[in-house]
Recover the amino acids of this structure.
């Protein structure tokens, strides 16, 4: 199934005027664009959009956007549809949901004379819509989400006979020509005429985005600062890539302050960059701008903050102690870091479909069917401490309590462990077949 019909005119299953929602903006995107991109990511590459006669405002939202790669056909509600005898995804224009939801729903079969209704039967389903008035169309008293699957013939006849989705669905339900698919996805909501509906939709997206972070500290502490910042950033013309670079310019200042004798301030700059490092991803997900290129820009720019730290710490220690061991350990740490980064980038390109360095540790899926060494078992236990949202906070405390010697010593131990980790991975991956790859 690769063809969707978006009903942006007439009335929806909750008797609301569907022509009023396509232009609604939240998360810096108009609803019609958000819905098209969402469905496109679910596998749709051809859209028929039913609008009021002469409605050009919706069309303007979808031009000159390289994210829109699908074919778009615009049809007036008064025009007879010409569809094939194949299943179509039918979506009303005020639905907010995820590509995963629609993809799961589209993976369903239905008879030519039946309609498949996506239903939410959870206890909190009523909280996801403002007017839960469609319970009567479902035999199991769930809430219709606003997405359906039906054959082209059935859609042609039904829409020509009635401009109301509620009438169509209710009629087919009464004739026992309706089947139900339980909602399976991250979230959903229908925009309504209720005041604050757009804000509720934006809050829903940010709430979901806030739960996608990796690590307890990132989800429960850093997000308290990054999410409000991202809410401001989405209102600016800054792209996620611009935000990534800007954040890591801030992060790179950490090395300067370490080098000039202010380790605590240096640690604070690293931690600020770590907290804000969530923002580029949050903005990208809210504005539907996630790309593989964006992952690589984020990953590469992050390394400048770390490299600045690895250079600044030994320099700062050397300037106050004049101990050449600081420069030796610093050079060693930078060498191990560059070795790991070069290898990790090669691994991501060769063995994964991701540009995120977090994915590197999926290497376990490839190498652990082989015998696991004691050092690897130890590293796996300590690995959570190697997350930047953990060690950036820890280095503030270490800089306060122990100063340069502790920071440099712990960094050196970590660098050696990462070197051993990556070297062992290289040895073991030589035994992996060239076509074996970690799937997203």
């Amino acid at each position: 199934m690769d063809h969707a019909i978006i009903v942006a005119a007439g009335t929806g299953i909750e008797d609301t005027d569907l022509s009023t929602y396509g232009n609604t903006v939240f998360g810096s995107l108009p609803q019609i664009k958000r819905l098209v991109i969402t469905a496109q990511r679910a596998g749709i590459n051809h859209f028929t959009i039913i609008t009021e006669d002469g409605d050009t405002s919706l069309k303007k939202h979808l031009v000159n956007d390289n994210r829109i790669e699908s074919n778009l056909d615009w049809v007036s509600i008064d025009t007879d549809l010409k569809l094939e005898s194949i299943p179509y995804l039918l979506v009303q224009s005020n639905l907010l949901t995820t590509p995963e939801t629609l993809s799961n729903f589209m993976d369903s079969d239905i008879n030519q004379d039946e309609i498949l209704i996506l239903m939410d039967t959870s206890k909190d389903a009523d909280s996801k819509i403002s007017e839960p008035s469609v319970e009567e169309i479902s035999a199991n008293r769930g809430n219709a989400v606003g997405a359906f699957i039906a054959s082209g013939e059935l859609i042609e006849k039904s829409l020509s006979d009635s401009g109301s989705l509620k009438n169509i669905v209710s009629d087919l339900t009464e004739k026992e020509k309706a089947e139900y698919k339980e909602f399976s996805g991250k979230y959903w909501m229908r925009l309504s005429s209720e005041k604050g509906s757009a804000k509720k939709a934006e809050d829903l997206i940010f709430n979901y985005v806030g739960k996608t972070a990796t690590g307890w500290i990132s989800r429960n502490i850093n997000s308290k600062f990054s999410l409000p910042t991202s809410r401001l950033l989405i209102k600016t013309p800054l792209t996620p890539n611009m935000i990534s670079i800007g954040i890591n310019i801030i992060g790179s200042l950490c090395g300067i302050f370490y080098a000039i004798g202010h380790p605590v301030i240096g640690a604070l700059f690293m931690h600020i960059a770590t907290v804000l490092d969530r923002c580029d991803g949050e903005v990208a997900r809210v504005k539907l701008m996630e790309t593989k290129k964006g992952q690589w820009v984020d990953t590469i720019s992050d390394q400048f903050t770390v490299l600045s730290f690895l250079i600044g710490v030994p320099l700062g220690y050397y300037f106050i102690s004049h101990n050449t061991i600081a420069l030796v350990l610093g050079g060693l740490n930078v060498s191990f870091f560059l070795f790991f980064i070069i290898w990790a980038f090669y691994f991501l390109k060769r063995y994964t479909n991701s540009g995120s360095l977090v994915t590197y540790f999926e290497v376990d899926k490839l190498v652990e069917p082989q015998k696991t060494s004691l050092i690897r078992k130890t590293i796996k236990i300590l690995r959570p401490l190697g997350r930047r949202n953990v060690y950036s906070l820890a280095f503030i405390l270490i800089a306060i309590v122990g100063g340069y010697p502790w920071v440099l010593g712990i960094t050196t131990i970590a660098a050696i462990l990462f070197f051993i980790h990556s070297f062992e991975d290289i040895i073991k991956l030589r035994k992996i077949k060239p076509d074996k790859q970690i799937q997203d």
Notes: The chain has two domains: 3-195, 212-429.
